[in-house]
Amino acid sequence: MGGNSASRLPRISREHILNAYKAGPDAVVSLVEYLQEQFQGSLDELSNTLAELSETNKKLVARIQALEEKINKDSHNSNKPPSSDGLARRFSRKRQSSGKKPGGQKGHEGTTLPMVKHPQHVQIHEVKRCHGCGRSLQHEKPRGYEPRQVFDIPPIVVQVSEHRAQIKRCPHCGELSVAAFPEGVNHKTQYGTRLKAFAVYLKNYGFLSYDRTAQAFSDLFSIPLSVGTLASIDQRCARRVEGVVEQIRQKLIREKVVHFDETGLNINGKLYWLHGAGTQGLTYYYPHERRGTAASDQIGILPHLRGNAVHDNWQAYMKYDCSHSLCNAHHIRELTYVYEQGGQPWAQQMIGLLLESKQTVEQARKAGKKRLAPCDIREYENRYQTIIAAGMKANPPPNRVDNPGKRGRLKRSKACNLVERLAKLEKETLRYLYDFRIPFDNNLAYAARGISKIMPTA
């Protein structure tokens, strides 16, 4: 950008002006024309400078907006996990009071330990003297007992079972014969099946690393399990459950409703994607280097699914020829962001509609109904479309007139993208209204994804 254009205009002295005046009209005209040319050049340069400043300002404003959007996003208005919120933001968002007193509510069934009829150990505590007069009661028969039971884990001691195979010599031919050991007893010393099952449980269900699993065995059982031994146990178990895993995959293909999600996973320092598919009773995980269609094709559930796929509108899922329903918990977070940060009323109205219709479905299901009445469905559809129209009006798509010189696809705001997606995928968003088997959200898959985020690596 140029400097001060006015400072570069030629300065004409009084003497030069007088000389031009004395030289006649032509000299005066030439002088004025010269000054006009210089002024116009400076004016053009100033205009270019202002245009550059305006463009720079637009870029800075866009950059500030992008940074503000990033800062203002957290788990309540985006798909970010709660762990990313930070303590300051987590405690700054105060929940609305329910008006209920702390603790268990009236009618809530507690979880107090029930007493057992036949405890393994009974210890009698005698009354030796009267609490009133102090006389001895040692020879009096008890009239009853007040029981209290303590539930505890006995000391865990590793038991070693020795297998001895008999060796006998035949008195007729002199051949030595050795008895057969039980199946699985293959070495001089080895770990038993329960111990190996416990190791697999801690490592894979307890989500401990190999190092911490080895440390747990050392601390709890005084058994020096090495990381290499644990890995070997893990691998052998994986090979033995391959058949069960394949059965789960085949059953999921035949299910009416299956939840899908994926999340990043660190495997040996490299980013993989842990793909999950599941129902209330079945869960299938598959790590893959790719996130999209290549992974789903290799997993082989979505390509053959004829039921309904529940997900968060990841476009790789939408390519498959099955019915789809979208996660409305995900939509509500996005709508919350549009309302809180953009101040757009339609977003709050859509949140209200989704939650109200969800409650209507739950009440109908509790009443034993299998579907909503057609008139109720039409009412919700009409309200949905009215809110979408308001959202479209508040977020018109960008056009070339307002963005001269821009090439390629014009960038849309997050609110514009959201309302266009909700308009295009109305049936997928409201599918829970039409079929009570379809859930309102994809929380079942999110719960599995949350677990996978804390899965340790080897």
Instruction: Output the structural class.
Output: alpha/beta
Largest sheet: number of strands, sense, barrel closure: 5 strands, mixed
How confident overall, as mean pLDDT? 86
Low-confidence stretches: 451-458
- Element order, helices and strands? HHHEEHHHHEEEHEHEHHHHHHH
Strand content: 5-15%
Annotation field: number of helices: 16
Q: Please state how the strands of the largest beta sheet are arranged side by side.
A: 5-4-3-6-7
What does this entry look like structurally?
- With 458 residues, the chain is α/β, with parallel strands linked by helices.
- Among the domains are: 5-55, no CATH class; 242-325, Ribonuclease H-like superfamily/Ribonuclease H (Nucleotidyltransferase, domain 5, 2-Layer Sandwich), CATH 3.30.420; 328-398 and 411-441.
- The chain is built from 16 helices and seven strands.
- It has a five-stranded mixed β-sheet with strand order 5-4-3-6-7, with helices on both faces. Strands 1-2 form a two-stranded antiparallel sheet.
- α4 (193-205) crosses α6 (227-240).
- The radius of gyration is 38 Å and the shape is elongated.
- It starts with 13 loop residues before the first helix and ends in a 6-residue tail after the last helix.
- The relative contact order is 0.07.
- The model is unreliable at 451-458 (pLDDT under 50).
